[in-house]
Amino acid sequence: MAAHSTAAFTADDFKGPGDTPVFHDAQGKHHPEGGTMLGFWLYLMSDCLIFAALFAVYAVLGRNYAAGPSPKDLFDLKLVALNTSMLLFSSITYGFAMLEMEKEKQGRMLLWLGVTGLFGLCFIGLELYEFHHLIHEGATPQRSAFLSAFFTLVGTHGLHVSLGIVWLVILMIQVQMRGLGDENKRRLMCLSMFWHFLDVVWIGVFTFVYLMGVL
Amino acid sequence: MSVASEDLHTRGSGRDVHEEPGGHGTFRDYMTGFLASVVLTAIPFWLVMSDVLGNPRLTGIVVMGFAVVQIVVHMVYFLHMNTKSEGGWTILALIFTLTLVLITLVGSVWVMYHLDTNMMPADHGMHMPAPQSTPTEPGVAAPAPHQHQH
Fold first, then answer.
1. Do residue B30 and residue A96 have CB atoms under 8 angstroms apart?
2. What is the pLDDT of residues B116-149, one digit of tens each?
3. What would you measure as the largest C-alpha separation in chain B, in angstroms?
4. CA quadruple B12, B17, B20, B23: dihedral positive or negative?
5. Distance, CA of A174 to chain centre
6. Looking at the predicted complex, does its ipTM rise above 0.90?
7. 3-class secondary-structure state, position B86
8. Among A96, A169, B40, B95, which is least packed, fewest CB within 10 Å?
């Protein structure tokens, strides 16, 4: 890690013998992580577009209640605030896990990852409770365009978090079995980006769907 | 890592410690991001739940502003976005994505709003001929008669 952090590129790095530019990076200096982090970032950006499309659907259909219940009748902001804090806490605990990973402290890292997973489970639990409550009251996805858009957007986010928890558990098992090698570090960093990205999407959800919904 | 030896105050200008997104934050980075996020989350909830401003439109705009700031905070302190990581490709991808997101959101709302307005039932019709010039014939399965203007 330290070797990469001091690497700085000059124009000479891209020139071969005879001042011809070299496009094949023979020294392997250009992408220290083999390009995985950039590739995963690009995946996250494409995921961002999926959420943008779902937000656009909600923006268009979010006020079409079909004489059914409106956000004011349905949403419990105290529950949403609790839910938001769960996701925010899970973000900081994942950050602590990454800090322990850099210090090569596997046990403490696994502990923080476990805490992160528990916060994630609380988030999913509260969301499922909310969905169950809504459906029990008759506010099902079939009830109105607003509710279809709501369940699609929030459900897709919840699905992402659920799969993130599955990924987290798998990585914890893998780290326990194989130790904290370079591959596992790279995987943990990918999941870190995924996890923080989901928190970013949630900012959009609680602001646009919940807070602005009840105004 | 050489983070500890580095002067924290000059890091903004020459942060070559953060090479790629995902890892490499400091404890200080994470705590700053976390505390900022808590504040930036708590204020919008407070504004809406206790209706501080008393004006839904204004509250909506303020709440959106807080969301944008919080997203930037998350990007910088949790995702470690900067113009240097991966030789600037991550920020380029992000800018490209944000452009597409903006087109998707603003375009959808803009088009659908106008479509909605222009497709309103006849009583709000904007470009329709006057109701008197097109009398509905009895017996024909015509759409519901024009309602009077409110």
1. yes
2. 888 866 554 455 455 454 444 444 444 444 444 4
3. 90
4. negative
5. 20
6. no
7. helix
8. B95
